[in-house]
Structures are given as structure tokens and as C-alpha cells.
Amino acid sequence: MKVLVPVKRVLDYNVKPRVKADGTGVDLANVKMSMNPFDEIAVEEAIRLKDKGVTEIVVVSIGEQKSQETLRTALAMGADRAILVVSETKVEPLGVAKILAKIVEEEKPDMVILGKQAIDDDNNQTGQMLAGLLNWGQGTFASKVEIADGSVNVTREVDGGAETDTLKLPAIITTDLRLNEPRYASLPNIMKAKSKPMAQKTPADFGVDVTPRLTTLKVVEPAKRSAGIKVADVDALVGKLKEMGVAK
Amino acid sequence: MKTLVWVEHDGQAVKDATLSAVTAASQLGEVHLLIAGQGVDGVAAEAAKIAGVGKVHVADDVAFAHALAENVAPLIVELMATHDAFVAPSTTHGKNIAPRVAALLDVMQISDILSVESEDTFTRPIYAGNAIATVQSSDAKKVITVRGTAFAKAATEGGSGEIEAVASTGDKGLSTFAGSEIAKNERPELTSAKIIVSGGRALASSEQFHATIDPLADKLGAGVGASRAAVDAGYAPNDYQVGQTGKIVAPEVYVAIGISGAIQHLAGMKDSKVIVAINKDEDAPIFQVADIGLVGDLFKIVPELTEKL
Q1: Hey, is the C-beta of B77 within 8 angstroms of any chain A C-beta?
Q2: Which intervals hold domain Electron transfer flavoprotein alpha/beta-subunit N-terminal (chain A) (predicted)?
Q3: How many domains is chain B partitioned into structurally?
């Protein structure tokens, strides 16, 4: 069984995003970049499924040349080979899904496991779009994945609790936070990852037009909340709440 | 512009998130609704009364009973032949279904909008709300999800929508619903509660979380939330989580108890009208956004507060 895992290089989740003064976006110059945390969970899940019938894991990244660092991280975690689709301009989820659909045609995986969203643009779209383009089942926001005979059971985090759906294979899965805790790559594995194969392509190789459909007109910081007052004790707090009409 | 709004329901009643999506859609043009499900006559009758709605499309079939995206998306795509925008609330159903529809229509979705600037221009949060982007869509048809807390709720009375049955597009045979565990909760839902009492890791155990937070929430008629740290530690169930990866809330009053205020938590609650913080660390970041702060031991303060309110 083959699994395809797309990964994205994003601003490290520990770095506070700074909006550029000219309002064109968030400043990504000279800041730490890492694999999107939800994608790390996707890579980890694919590796864990290696005991349960998965024989090959192919990781894909669509983005700038530096995304090969992100792919090397996935290879060091335990993926087998990588495909980098180089685009120095931003590719939207629709374009990413179209390229992935072409890669799926070539690679014929049984499952594609993706992060539910990237923490930069917070779109939460690519997995669902890919499922639509391929006419496959989709198990989004997964907290548990169990492969059965010709199908996969996916427990999903939904409003108010959890839902389990059975999907016919091949299928799409998108990961939520509690699916697993990704491993750190060990030094020997990082060394080994350097010799694992990485193919390089462009969107044009797949005949996909990735012209953006959305234009970002401006990016601003959200309205700031200012700190209020501190009260000394519970009586003062109750008094304040009454004053504000919160308590009677 | 003719919009088609996804009605979020549980088979019995229209969920509040729908009402915010209706308000957003009404800023684009005519509002039509889609109710997909099984045995949804009651929901349809209720939805038809929402102020300002025109047609109410009802697709009643067992294939739609659990709103599986694989079955629902083709239905929406058919209806989109006569509509210009598909608008869904940013609920788990909305987030699951809308991008599949967008791909089938060859449209780039605009996720989680905060405002409608014009027919093709919207604002939306990026980087967990640390930046707000204004985006313009060049697609002929729009697919949009709506952040509920950013739009007022449409009135549930006063409308006289025209109910129209839609033929089922059938079961696509790709997925089946195998079961769900939805927590029974007597308290108001987080995304529509007027008051929320939320607990953090400082509660230190599931027993103490409930023994401390629940009585105060009961007294205030509040919903109960939790920080990710509290959920990860097992003090509170998953669906309590408020924050970037949990629920986005904006109640009139948010009481944060023993929550330090990590950026991911703030992203989920900083639009609350009044924030009250109780924490023993006076340097906790939560105090930078709180309107009223009280520094001290929550295990003493919260019971005293519950008693005095």
C-alpha cells in the first residue's frame, strides 16, 4: 500500500508573525521556517501505518526551492522518497490540489494524508479539494485512522464531539492535532535522508495553470485589545461585574 | 447576486451558525437556503421564517442524513447552476463540504470571512488571526465560509421563505457514516453562549476542573470552555477547546480561569466583549487582553466568586 503525504514549508509556529509595514503581507525574511505542524502529524501517521500494510511513503511539496529542506525533514522522519514541485510564486490550495491530482494519477497511491490546514493562510481546503477533483472519499480532521479491508475507518473531530466514517479506498485523510505526536528525526536518520531520492518538477510539467484567483489587496494587524484594570479581591471583582451589568 | 446558504442543523433545529451566514450572504444579495438531510420538514419550516430568506431548497434523502461531503457536494454543485455564491458557516460540516464544492466548480474558496467589503472583496484572518488580509476574488462564482462571531445573527422570525423540494443526487458510494459520539451538554453551546467560563491547566485535574468551573458556569448560565493545555492534559473534553485549533468564540463575557493566555488561545477568544481573567501569575499574558484581572489562587477565588454572585 502506497501513501502520498503533501507537506508545506511555513513560518515556524513559535515565531510571532509580523505584518510588513507596507501592508503587503507577513514578513518572512530571515525568520525560522518549518514544516506545517499538521503536515508533521500527517507524515507521522503514514509512518505508523507502515506496520499495518503501508509499504511506501512519498512526500510532496509545492513551493520555493527551499522547500527541499522540509522534504528532507520528512525523509529523515521515515518517508521513502520526495517530489519537489518548484514555484517561486505562491500557489493557492486550488492550484496545489490540481497538481496533487496529477501526481496521484502518476503515483497511484491508496491514500493521501494531508494536514487539515496550513498555519500561514489558515485555508483548510487542499484535502477536500483534492478529494473532489479525484472523486474520492474524504476523512477530514482525523483523530484516529484504522485501515480495514479495502476501506479505512476515520474518526473525525466534529463540533460537539467525534464522528466515525468508513471510506472506500483510495481515500483522502486530513489530520487534526490529536491524531498522534510526531517524532523527532534522529541524527543517523537525518544523515540517511540525504541520500534518499528527491525528484524535481514544475507546475508546467503537469500542465496545471496555477495563476492565483485571489488577489491580496492588503494585510493589516488586527485591532489591539488594551489591558484593563486589575482588582484587589473578589468583592471588587463582583462590584465591577455589577457595574458593567454582567452580574445582578 | 443570488446566494445559496448551507443550513447547519441537527435534524431537529437550525443551528445558530446558520444565522450569521445568512447575514453575510444578505450583504451579497438575495438569500436562498439549502437544507439537506433526512426528515427535515420541521427544520425547513423553521428556516423559512428566518428574516430575509427567499427560496428554501429542501433535499430530503437518506444519502444526506449525515451531511457526508461526498454526497452533499454534487447536490450543491447542481444548485449552483442557478446561484452566484455558495455560503456556509465555518462549522465542521461547512469546512468539510465547501472546499469540495469549490474544487468541483473550479473556484478558489474564500475561507472564514470576517467582513464583506463588496461583491468580490472580503477580509479574512491569516496566521491564526495575527494578521487580517483583504482579498479580492476573480472567480465568476464565489464559495465562501463565514466566521460566525464576525456577523450578527439574522432574526429567526419575520421571514416567509418559499419551500421547494430538490431531487436527490443520490448516494455516491464513497463513504458511509459509522457512528458518532456527541457530548450531551445541558449548557449553552460555546459558539453562541453569551457568557463563557473557561479553565486552564492550573485546574490540575479533571475532578478539580469540574468542581471549580461548573458551579460558576451554572450560576452565570454560562457555557464551559477550556484551553488546549487543559484539554491535552485530559481535564476537559476535546470539544471544550477554545483557540486557534478549537472553537472561535466571542461572547459578551469570557471568564478565563487559570489560563495563561498563549497566543493560540487568545486567537480563539480575543473578540469577546468583556474578558475577565483570574490567574496566580501577575505577569501572565492573559492580563494584557483582560478588561478585569484578579491575581490570586483560583481555588480560593472561584468558589468565593460563585457564592457572592
Answers
A1: no
A2: 23-210
A3: 2
Any domain includes B179: no
Assigned C-alpha cell, B242 = 477554545
| H or E stretch covering A127 | helix A126-134
Q: Are residues B92 and B217 in the same domain?
A: no
Q: Does B160 lie in the same domain as B27?
A: yes
B60 and B201 co-located in one domain? no
The enclosing domain of B15 has a CATH number of: 3.40.50.620
The verdict on a CB contact (< 8 Å) between A220 and B295 is no
- If one counts every other C-beta atom within 10 angstroms of the C-beta of residue B270, the result is 20
Taking an 8 Å cut-off on Cβ atoms, the answer to whether A123 and B111 are in contact is yes
Q: Clarify whether residues B58 and B154 are in a common domain.
A: yes
Using a CB–CB cutoff of 8 Å, tell me whether A160 touches chain B: yes
Which residue in chain B has the smallest CA separation from A16?
A: B130
Coil, strand or helix: which one is B111? strand
**Which chain A residue's Cα is nearest to B273?**
A225
* Cα B34 → chain centroid: 18
Nearest CA in chain B to A37: B245
β pairing state of B162-165 and B142-146: unpaired
- Give the CATH number of the domain where residue B249 resides: 3.40.50.1220
Domain final position from B126, B145, B165: B165
CATH number of A2-243: 3.40.50.620
Q: Are residues B126 and B10 in the same domain?
A: yes
Q: Does A121 touch chain B (CB under 8 A)?
A: yes
pLDDT higher than 80, residue A247? no
Among residues A121, A84, A114, A122, which one has the least CA distance to residue A200? A84
pLDDT in tens, B116-175: 999 999 999 999 889 999 999 999 999 999 999 899 999 999 999 999 999 999 999 999
Last residue within a domain, chosen from B119, B149, B165: B165
Please state the ipTM of this predicted complex. 0.96
Contact state of B289 with A164 under an 8 Å Cβ cutoff: no
Distances (CA, A) of B89 to A80, A84, A87, A117, B99: 39, 35, 32, 17, 12
Task: Find the domain containing B139 and state its range.
Answer: 2-165
State the cell numbers at B147.
466566521
Contact at CB, B174 and A136, closer than 8 angstroms: yes
**Taking CB atoms and an 8 Å cut-off, how many pairs form between chains A and B?**
244
Q: Is the pLDDT of residue A134 over 90?
A: yes
Residue B182 covered by a domain? no
State whether B263 and B206 are in the same domain: yes
Place of cell 434523502: B61
A-contacting residues in B 143-182 (Cβ below 8 Å): 172-182
pTM of the predicted model, to two decimals? 0.94
